[in-house]
Amino acid sequence: MALDAFGRLVFLYLACAKLVSAQYTIPDVTIQALKPKGIRVSIPDSRGVSLFVFQGNLNKEIGSNDVGVIAGEVTNPMDGLWMYEDLDLQLKVGDVIYYYVFVSNDGKGYVKDRLTFTVRVLEDPISTGPNDCAPTQTRVRNGQACAGKIIFEEKFDYLREDVWQIEQYIPDEPDYPFVSYQRPFNVPTVSVQGGYLRIEPKLQQNIPGFSNSSIEMGSLDLFSGCTATSTKCRTEAWGASILPPIVSGKLTSKAFAFTYGVVEIRAKLPQGDWLYPDILLESFLKKYGSLNYASGVLRVAGARGNGQLSVGTADFGNKLLFGGVLMDAKCRDILLRNKTSSRPWGDDYHIYAVRWTPDEITLLVDGEEWTRITPSSNSLKDLFSTSCDIPRSVLATGSKLAPFDDHFVLSLGVAAGGITEFPDGVTSAGKPKPWQNTSRKASLRFWQDIASWIETWRQPALLVDYVTVRAL
C-alpha cells in the first residue's frame, strides 16, 4: 500500500474510532530497539482484534492524524502477539519515538495516541524475540509461564470439556444459594452459542424427567455425574427444607491452575431479581482449609440482578459492581469493594480483569482500575476488621498475601438467593425481600414468592465472550 493511501486509510479509521464507545482497551505497547539496527513493536493478541496499525516519528512529535516515518500495518497475529518489525531502522540510545497506535476490534476502531518511547538500550533481536521465555513470578500447575505471554485462553468456539468441568452438585456453605448445579440433557444450563458461553438458570419443576411431586416434597438425586463429595449429591425435601428450586450451571477450569497473573473476562452479567454471577478464582488444593472461605475466594466481578434493590438510599442493585477477596463469610461486606455505574452492568459486555501479584490484587473494568487491595507489612488480614474469623492456618504460614499465594482455578456460574449475597432489610422495587437469611424457611419463602421475581428474569443468563490469563 502506498504511504499516502495508507495515511488516508488511517485517517478514516481514526474518524470512525471517535464514533464508538470504548468496549475494548488497547493493552500496553511493547517497543524494542534492536541491534545493530531495527525496531520491534507489539501488543498482546485478544479475541476480536483484526488489525494493528503503528504510526511513529523519530525525535519529532506526531499528530494523531499524521502518517509517521515509522509506519506499519499488521493483519495477522503471531505467537500471541500483533507485531510490527522494521529491521532497517537505525536507532541509537537517547532517541525518542513519538507514536500512536490504532486497533480494530470486532469491527470498531480504537486509538491510543500521544505516546513516547525513549531508547535506553539496544537489544539482541534473537534473545528478545516473541518465542523467548523471560522469567516471571507467575506459576502454572504442570506447565511453564513466560513473562507477558498468554498461559490460558478460551474463545468459546465450542464447549471444551477437556478444559472445563461442568459441575453437578448441591452447593451449601457458606452461601447456601437456592440452586443445584446440573447439566440436564434436554434443557442445557451450560452451552456455547455463536462463540459465547451461556450459563442460564432454569426452574427445577420445568426440567424434563423431574418425577417428584413438587419442590416441597420428594428428593433430588445427582449421584450420576456428581462432581462433589457424596453429601452434596442428594437431598430430600423435609418440613421447611425444600429442594433447591433453581437449576443452574457452573464451570471450573479442569486442569488449569495458576498463581499470580492477569485475568481478563469479557462478559455480560445476568439480570433478574435475586440472581448474581459467580466470576471467581477459587483455591485449587485448599491449602489453608476446605471450610468456608478458609483458602480464599477472589471475586473478579459481581452485580446483583435486581433493577431496584435498596436499603434506604443505599443501592445494592444491578448498577453496583462488587468484587475482591473473600476469606470469611461473616464480614464479607468489609472485604468486598464496590463501584457504581449510571447503567446496569448487565446492559452491555464489559471486560472484567484482575491483576494478581505477590504484593497486591488489582481489579479493573474496561481497562480502568477501580480498586486495589494491598496488604500491610504483616498480612492481608490486617486490612480488615478484627471481627473477621480468619483461620489461624492462614496467619501461621504463607506470604503476606495468604491465602492468595497458592494455585487457583477459574470458575464461572450463576446463582440465586442464598444467605449472604442479599442483606436482610433490602427492598426490591419497594417490596421487602421475601426471606430472612437466618431462617430455616429462607428457600421456601423465596420459592413462594415466585410470581414476583420470575417475571423479571428477562435476561437471566451469564454470557462470556472470552477468558484469557497472561503471565506477569
TrEMBL record:
Q: Spell out the InterPro entries in the cross-references.
A: Beta-glucanase-like, BGBP_N, BGBP_N_sf, ConA-like_dom_sf, GH16_GRP_C, Glycosyl_Hydrlase_16
Q: What is the residue range of the signal peptide feature? A: 1-22
According to the entry, every stretch annotated as the CBM39 domain falls at 24-124
Domain GH16, chain residue ranges per copy: 162-472
Q: Does the keyword Glycoprotein apply?
A: yes
Q: Which UniProt keywords apply?
A: Glycoprotein, Immunity, Innate immunity, Signal
Q: What highest taxon heads this organism's lineage?
A: Eukaryota
Question: One GO biological process from the UniProt record?
Answer: carbohydrate metabolic process
**A Pfam family the protein falls into:** Glyco_hydro_16
What molecular functions are annotated in GO for this chain? carbohydrate binding; hydrolase activity, hydrolyzing O-glycosyl compounds
The UniProt entry's sequence similarity note says: Belongs to the insect beta-1,3-glucan binding protein family.
Record protein name field: Jg9822 protein
Q: What are the top taxonomic ranks of the organism?
A: Eukaryota, Metazoa, Ecdysozoa, Arthropoda, Hexapoda
| Name of the gene this protein is made from | jg9822
